[in-house]
Design goal:
single chain, mainly beta, four-stranded antiparallel β-sheet, 51% strand, YncE family protein
Length: 183
């Protein structure tokens, strides 16, 4: 942790991993969830002290990357890239509640609290999942985006999900696709 006014390091910790990926913060418990992609695991730290609390080994998939937290229903959504799989974990225990296939090589995730929908862009498609039911995750739709398109961002306040589509060759341009969230 760094003081943003002075740049002084306040707290730091060593993480025994080679490859860290996105993190999620639970402000109600001060827990920080950290993707240990090279270990197929999630490490949980105390946000204030950066003391390691525990580590959860993921039950399916490899190279976990995108992560999102549902504070209201105590769920942690984790996407593994090998193969593309979305996992719903209990954010209190780490227990796997459900899982479902995603497009290949996913790089981002967006969880919309209002609709309880999850957006996962992967290689060439944007998958939209329903996470509102007690029966687990359910694929609502999958929309083609373009080769290599796997980076995106949810803009909840604008009811949009944006996907970056790289150029497949020097003969064409990269572009951005904007999807409207209905409901």
């Amino acid at each position: 942790m760094i003081n943003s006014d002075t740049g002084r390091v306040l707290v730091s910790t060593h993480v025994a991993a080679l490859h860290l990926q996105p993190m999620a913060l639970d402000p109600s418990t001060d827990r920080l969830f950290v993707n240990l992609a090279d270990q197929d695991a999630i490490a949980i730290y105390d946000r204030n002290t950066l003391r390691a609390l525990e580590t959860w080994k993921l039950p399916v998939g490899h190279r976990n990357s995108p992560i999102a937290l549902d504070l209201r229903r105590h769920r942690l959504f984790v996407v593994a890239t090998d193969p593309g799989i979305l996992m719903e974990l209990n954010s209190e225990t780490g227990a796997l509640e459900s899982s479902i296939a995603t497009p290949g090589i996913p790089d981002d995730i967006g969880f919309d609290d209002a609709t309880e929908q999850i957006y996962v862009p992967g290689d060439g498609a944007l998958a939209v999942f329903d996470a509102s039911g007690s029966e687990g995750l359910r694929l609502l739709q999958q929309v083609k985006t373009g080769p290599g398109a796997r980076t995106g961002m949810l803009i909840s306040s604008e009811r949009r999900f944006v996907v970056a589509v790289p150029s497949p060759s020097t003969a064409s341009s990269a572009h951005v696709m904007v999807f409207t969230i209905d409901k």
